[in-house]
Amino acid sequence: MKEMTAAQLKQMIEAGERIQVIDVREDEEVAFGMIPSAIHIKMGDIPHRMNELDKNETYMIICRSGVRSEHVCTYLEAHGYNVCNIVDGMLGWDGEVV
């Protein structure tokens, strides 16, 4: 499984790279802020919503600390999706949130 830190993700976004971020935290967690360009799909909704994802894209998966996102990455990889786990999650994010 591909992995990177929140700091590396921030650098890619700041460099203007086209990044697809999926935040898999619960509603009450994202209420405190999420990465501006991120799409919110709760971990439990991934099996029902993965048909919304493009298998030709790479998705950066983020949660609070990197554990749930790792599980989501394992699941999506098993279904043929290109994913990268943000290992330190939003705890490691020091960028803008909305």
From TrEMBL:
<dbReference type="Pfam" id="PF00581">
    <property type="entry name" value="Rhodanese"/>
</dbReference>
<protein>
    <submittedName>
        <fullName>Rhodanese-related sulfurtransferase</fullName>
    </submittedName>
</protein>
<dbReference type="GO" id="GO:0016740">
    <property type="term" value="F:transferase activity"/>
</dbReference>
<feature type="domain" description="Rhodanese">
    <location>
        <begin position="15"/>
        <end position="98"/>
    </location>
</feature>
<dbReference type="InterPro" id="IPR050229">
    <property type="entry name" value="GlpE_sulfurtransferase"/>
</dbReference>
<dbReference type="InterPro" id="IPR001763">
    <property type="entry name" value="Rhodanese-like_dom"/>
</dbReference>
<keyword id="KW-0808">Transferase</keyword>
<dbReference type="InterPro" id="IPR036873">
    <property type="entry name" value="Rhodanese-like_dom_sf"/>
</dbReference>
